[in-house]
Design a protein that fits this description.
The protein is 30% helix and 18% strand. By secondary structure, the chain is α+β, with helices and mostly antiparallel strands. α4 runs parallel beside α5. The longest helix is centred in the middle third of the chain and has 20 residues. The chain starts with a helix and ends in a 16-residue tail after the last helix.
Length: 543
Amino acid sequence: MTYAHWMLTADERGNDATRLDERHSDGSAWSEGNRVRALVHGAAYFAELLAGIRAMRAGDLLLFTDWRGDPDERLGGPGTEIGTVLQQAAERGVIVKGLLWRSHLDSLHFSQKANRRLGAEIEEAGGECLLDLRVRPGGSHHQKMVVLRHPGRPELDVAYVGGIDLCHNRNDDAGHRGDRQSLPMASAYGPHPPWHDVQLAVRGPAVGDVEAVFRERWQDPAPLSRSPLTRLRELVHREDTSADALPPQAPDPAPAGTQTVQVLRTYPNRLLYGYPFAPDGERSIARGYIKALRRAQGLVYLEDQYLWSPRVVRHFARALSAHRRLRLIGVIPLVPEQDGPLTLPMNLIGRIAALDALRRAGGDRVAVYGLENPAGTPVYVHAKVCVIDDVWASVGSDNINLRSWTHDSELSCVVLDQSPDPRAPSDPGGLGDGARVFARELRLELMREHLEAADGDGPDGPGGPAQDALCDPVTAFAAFAEAAAALDAWHEEGRRGPRPPGRLRRYVPPELPAVKRVLATPLHHVLVDPDGRPFGLRRRNAF
């Protein structure tokens, strides 16, 4: 496999100010020889993270960035609150450094107070956690990473990258009964919203790449905020506003597996105090998607919180138009996160417009679903996963929307496996790539969960003739359609008889008069922007 067929080269990243690629001695824009595991659901991630932090010793290094952090969120049982666990690590002599988005006001349902509390707890124990508002107006720091480094024990080094924040609602598992520590959401989700999410555990040389992303942000000399009110608040609360020096970065861990990892990012082009590591921003996440989509031949499998924005979705539509055998499966929330009189119509307008564009391009080769748990409660899909042709897999903090591709800071990892899948590898376009183990196993793990199929089962059930049938894109596409149709019919018939297997429901947006009126307006995509109107891009760094 030629990695440059699927991954961005250093030039294609479009950011010659970063040291992310130049740190590789061969000049490549990726790191080979990694072992990557997908941790599906917050419970799996939190359990592993808890064990990893508790095993850290004095002199070890713990780095993290997050959109929201709730200090009382438990990683396990009582006594495992994230604030307590990080405090204890700092008290043991672990070097703890964190960057949390300073955020908007909590009255807007964001995270300012929670992030300040977590930062204060870490600082009291001797760690350092900065509240970072170095974003464009209306933007956020959305990256979600944790890096654990162990001088003298590099075999323990690991980086976690994905969509899972260290906060309430996230600690759910495959049963989807929800996190007992919950934040309010739309009423359809109930008091403990079921939550579906994915985080990667990366071991090997790419740990150094993720650490380099943290270091670039940490060493940014710009003030944490340009707001006079915020800076006054920093003085009143005696907040830490300057980053202490980090210890020198250790050599990258030794090769540990067969996966090649490329770290991709979004940074906005800030008007003042531009990022020294991305003075004109970075759009490598968008560019990575666009490059991979040009090679898509058989199946694009998406799990995404949003799936909207015409400027983003058009690249998926172009792939569907260019390749008549290409299919797209999307798994998204059945119900928007909030059901307010303003946010609900805006969310629906953005999503309906995006799905219409996809269906115009792909017709019945496009299928979009939501999830429900065994009790019939919708599952909030927060995952940010894309698998293309069982070759290219991306997991990160970025959603399929314009904010994630242009305006907020985002972080994702693209994984290409050197190992071909031995089970009748698919090569739908005759490109000589064929299915790869990591990408295929990630897709199959997610699809089996949603179908309630055991490992190795096909759509015909355990032990049937369809062993590994889900490897085939056409069969997988049909299996989702059949499972959703059966569950939809069971609901329509009053839930009589045994519940059909599977968690899938066909996505049908609720009909609201206000939404219909706006969609009937020719310029509805200008009048209503669910992304919050990101600023225009400078031409040379647009995607």
